[in-house]
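Many introductory courses stop at the sequence. We go one step further.
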Amino acid sequence: MDTETTDTGATSTAAASGGAAPAPQVWPSLRAADARALIRHLVEAFGFEEVVAYGEGDFVTHAELAWPEGGGVMLGSERPTPEGSAPWPGGPGSFTAYVVTADPDAVHARAVAAGARITAAPADTDYGSRGFAAADPEGNHWHFGNYPGAPRPSAG
C-alpha cells in the first residue's frame, strides 16, 4: 500500500493496486437499530459495496458503504449520546438520500429481486430525470435516479 502524508501530518493509504484516495466528497451518515442487517440490505438490494464495518457482534461503531458510481454512506449502530455531546440528529428510520445512478431501472430490478419495499415506481420527471424510491428495513427512504444535479455556474 502507498502511504502519503499531508501538510497537516495526517496519513492516507492508497490501495496496493495503485489506486489513489478518492477526491473529497459528501458522505451522509445514519444510525441503525440493526446496522449489520441494514448493511446487508443496502449491499444486496441496491448494490452498495461494503468497504469497512468496525465493531463487535451486532454492534457497528463505524461502517462505510461505497456507491459504485461515486460517494457512499457511513453508518453505525444506534447508541447513547456521550456525556457532553449533542444528541444524534435523527434516529433509525429518519434518513433520506438521493443516489445518482446511470441506470435506475437496473437498480430498481435488483431492489425488487431482493425484496425491497418500493415506495415509488420508476418514472420520468419534468426536469429530465428517471428514478424510483424504496424504503429499507429501518424505514429510511432511498431515491435512485439519473439526475446528476444542475450544471454549476461558471467560476468567472
